[in-house]
Amino acid sequence: MFKRTWAAVLGASLALAAAGCGDTGDDASSGGGGSRTLTVFAAASLTETFTALGKTFEAAHPGVKVRFDFGGSDSLAQGITQGAPADVFASASPATMKTVTDAGDAGGTPQVFTRNRLVIAVPPKDPGKVARLADLSRPGLKVVLCAPTVPCGAAAKKALVAANVRVEPASEETDVKAVLTKVSLDEADAGLVYRTDARAAAGKVKAIEFPESAQAVNDYPIVEVKKAPQGALAKQFIQLVLGAQGRAALTGAGFEAP
User: Fold this and answer.
1) Who's near 73: CB < 8 A, 6+ residues apart?
2) What global pTM score does this model have?
3) Whole-number pLDDT of residue 5
4) How many CB atoms neighbour CB 149 within 10 A?
5) Rounded to an integer, what distance in angstroms lies between the CA atom of residue 55 and that of residue 237?
6) H helices within the chain, ranges in order?
7) CA–CA distance, 66 with 17 (Å, rounded to integer)
């Protein structure tokens, strides 16, 4: 989980930039040489897909290392507005992206590159006997959700309201991976997670689709961060995500086309 304090990260990252990781304007893939690091802040639900795309990007750009910070989109957005050096921000909702654009820290107009929806995740043996969203309100059932400030939490709240289902969560987690972990470890009877995360954890949890998820589909926007240390590389990474390879990777993981 993403738990570092931005004051500490900022000092270390600035020192790294001063050591020569800034954008020199010569693309390593065209023979410019040198080692550079592209820093991508991305929603936790993008972990598996973006990690794979990062390897694809590195293969096409010799000498470039893609470093990811995955976590709750709200925390990542706050980090950017507080000065944490990043090149790209991929958020799990327009609301958390707005934090960055309102602060003037976006280097362009955010573009929606994919969508995601919720499922109910339960342990493989489903001890709580969950079959539908309304079951989450059953007394004694231990349910975990993302915190309301996190996109997966905001989506969960919207879906529950649409279904007129009231849930008292046993805990509210900082990102969707934390919810998934509690369910997979049998520390909860159920949790609301993204379809893509449940698919990535196949065998550790069972996913239950529910119709009300259509009322809470999240759009995922991506943008270059203003004053990105690696501005040229940031643009190229965004092009990869928006292009055919990115779309194929995302839909293959269970994301939906925007």
Assistant:
1) 43, 91, 92, 93, 96, 97, 150, 151
2) 0.85
3) 41
4) 16
5) 11
6) 6-16, 47-60, 73-81, 94-102, 151-163, 176-184, 195-200, 231-242, 244-252
7) 15
User: What does the pLDDT look like over 168-201, one tens digit per residue?
Assistant: 999 999 999 999 999 999 999 999 999 999 999 9
Report the relative pairing of strands 36-43 and 88-90 from DSSP bridges: parallel
| DSSP type of residue 106 | B
* Whether 31 contacts 59, CB under 8 Å: no
- φ, ψ at 255 (rounded to 5°): -70, 165
Strands 143-146 and 171-173: parallel
Tell me how far apart the alpha carbons of residues 149 and 92 are, in angstroms, rounded to a whole number.
Answer: 12
Question: What is the rounded CA–CA span in Å between residue 2 and residue 248?
Answer: 27
Could you tell me the two tokens for 222? 């991506």
- CA–CA distances in Å: residue 125 to residues 78, 121, 210, 235: 38, 11, 19, 45
- Rounded mean pLDDT, 142-161: 96
Q: What is the mean pLDDT of residues 54-75?
A: 97
DSSP-derived 3-state class of residue 214: helix
191-240 tens-digit pLDDT: 999 999 999 999 999 999 999 999 999 999 999 999 999 999 999 999 99
Q: Distance between CA atoms of 114 and 42, rounded to whole angstroms?
A: 13
Tokens (6 digits) for 159? 């879906």
Number of neighbouring beta carbons within 10 Å of residue 144: 24
Average pLDDT for the chain: 89
| pLDDT category of residue 21 using cuts at 50, 70 and 90 | very low
